[in-house]
Amino acid sequence: MKYALVWLLALLLAACSDSEPAKEPPAEQQDVAAERADLPATHEAQAAADRRRSEWLLIEHAGWPKKPAASLDSPILEPGISTPASRPAQVGDRPLLAIVIDDVGQSYAQGRRLIDLPVPIALAILPQTPAAARLAEEAHARGQTVLLHLPMENGAGLSIGPGGLFAHMSREELLASLVDSLGRLGPIQGVNNHMGSRLTAERAPMDWVMGELRKRGLFFVDSRTTAQTQAAFAADAAGVQNLSRDVFLDNKREPEAIHREFQRGLALARKNGYAVLIGHPYPQTLDYLERWLPGLADREGVQVVSLQALLERKYAPTQTSD
């Protein structure tokens, strides 16, 4: 019996030694696996970032007066159905709408959804995030506008992440941090502020920022996280072309709330000739934009354009009569 067990064990060992070695997966499967492993943010990390963003939006904007929006409320209709406010216009006469998506750079997948939208979109990319450089390069190659989403001190004491500018910094410290952030994304067209309710209310730091942007030929978009912002005044004084945010698209992420704010942006564009919407790469926001932006110009009479097109309209020479 003892010898029989030894003989059986020897047979099993021989069978194991004769088995084929594990094969590597095909090259295309390896590429897919590498691509997935290279994604800069997991679903859990992105969900946590979304929660933090929602929290600071609520705190940062808590002091803003709530404007009555009853006249701008609009039911959610299918994109193919025009709203009663739609007024088709000639292309040259159409109101213009520019859309900026802040806080890009944590998730490559979300950034690609923005790049692939069928209209001009400005990606405001945080400088020291995992997918920042890659998304900036791909957006630039696709012809989308790339902004440095520059972290600035807020009045609520919330963390702003690496590369931030603070009111206590000296001019030399602030400019050193600014120059470092400007060099991280490759070609960019402009800058806008991430948070910043404290810093943008300080004229001297904003003068320093605008002086550097003027030297580089960059424009500035003020997210207007405080009613006391000095950004536009400093930009005008420095000769930096600038725009200001009109509507935050997704302070509330429910589809009905996003739709209501989008309609408010359309109404402001019709009233003033153009408007700037700022949103964030939430799944709900991306879903809404992918659904509503195709065919918007024909459906609503408002043209989605780049920030540069808005700047051209804002700074177009005024016609004077002889």
Description:
The chain contains 12 helices and 9 strands. By secondary structure, it is an alpha/beta fold. It has a domain at 93-315: TIM Barrel. Helix 6 links the parallel strand 3 and strand 4. The protein is globular, with a radius of gyration of 25 Å. 37% of the residues are buried.
Structure at a glance:
With 322 residues, this protein is α/β, with parallel strands linked by helices. The chain has helices at residues 2-18, 27-37, 43-60, 108-115, 132-142, 171-182, 203-216, 231-238, 255-272, 283-292, 296-300, 307-314, and strands at residues 96-104, 122-125, 145-152, 190-195, 219-222, 242-244, 247-248, 274-279, 303-304.
Name of the CATH homologous superfamily of the domain at 93-315: Glycoside hydrolase/deacetylase
Q: Which CATH class of the domain at 93-315? A: Alpha Beta
Strand content: 5-15%
Let me know the number of strands.
9
Order of helices and strands: HHHEHEHEHEHEHEEHEHHEH
How big is the Rg?
25 Å
The CATH topology annotation of the domain at 93-315 reads as TIM Barrel
How many distinct helices? 12
- Regarding quaternary structure, how should these chains be classified? single chain
CATH architecture of the domain at 93-315: Alpha-Beta Barrel
Percent helix: 40-55%
